[in-house]
Amino acid sequence: MGEPQDIHVVIITGMSGAGKSVAMRSFEDMGYFCIDNLPPALLPKFIELIEESRGKMNKIALVMDLRGRDFFDSLVDAIVDLSRYKWLRAQILFLEANDMTLVQRYKEARRSHPLAPSQAPLTGIKLERSMLEKLKGYANQLIDTSNLKPLELREKIRDSFMTQAENVFTVNVLSFGFKYGLPIDADLVFDIRFLPNPHYVDTLRPRTGLEDDVASYVLKWPETKEFLEKTLDLLEFMLPYYKREGKSQLIVAIGCTGGKHRSVALSEYIGKVFAKDYHTKITHRDIEKGKG
Q1: Is the distance from CB of 3 to CB of 51 less than 8 angstroms?
Q2: In degrees rounded to 5, what are phi and psi of residue 270?
Q3: DSSP-H helix ranges across 137-261
Q4: Which of 65, 82, 194, 231 places its Cα 20 to 30 Å from the Cα of 1?
């Protein structure tokens, strides 16, 4: 195997209180492997581990700030050293805010500044700004968060660091059986146990909602048609707003008793409807359970 290629590392740094925690969560949502408060002196060793992994991690975000101030002097040297790795694409995201905004944030959070724990926040802010001046000059991207809400910061980061191919909102339609428990990661859950059940039809019982005759049985009833009409209308209304809020995926769970007939058939139907406008994934959690 050759050297790993196109490994992307984003170093998130900047003023304390400027939004680095929000930034890290944004990168996590985009599929980055994230590490908070990595001591700069350990950055070269970490890069070596990435190289040895042969590209198993290809998107990494590291928060590096003055919480590790004993090591911070080595950060600029470590960043400059990254240029020797030809397979590495390193960027520095520097977050800042004006003094008034930072003081207000410290007061609202009732926190002291890490560089001046026993003094007024402004004292620590001015010291930190001076210490970071050189590093700021190395930044590939600078974002002033003074007038940004957390959601607006997330949008800026997503627009800057997510490629068009990655910027995909996925609708994950999941069938399940209530007898096996609710899916804990579902965003929306629909209970369709009120619909006629193919389990009570001898010829359909051993089969699944993936088969045409079972699906036809489930879909033929007036109550099924009315449920689909109302549910599709609701989802068509909601999905654009979920996407606007920055969600990378929405998990829509459809549940029947055993997760084998009704929920499977309706998940297939709903998933195929939204596949016209969204990246859609259909998953049947419990379809194989209870066999044998």
Answers
A1: yes
A2: -65, -45
A3: 150-161, 212-219, 222-244
A4: 82
**pTM (2 decimals)?**
0.57
> 53 vs 23, 89, 136, 290, CA distance in Å?
25, 16, 30, 40
Q: How far is CA 286 from CA 1, 204, 251, 262, in A?
A: 39, 17, 16, 12
Q: What are the tokens at 100?
A: 């008034």
181 burial level (CB within 10 Å; 0-12, 13-18, 19+): exposed
Strand, helix or coil at 31?
coil
Rg (CA), the chain: 25
Note the pLDDT of residue 107.
87
Bridge partner residues of 10 (DSSP): 61, 91
The answer to which of 35-49, 190-204, 218-232 has the lowest mean pLDDT is 35-49
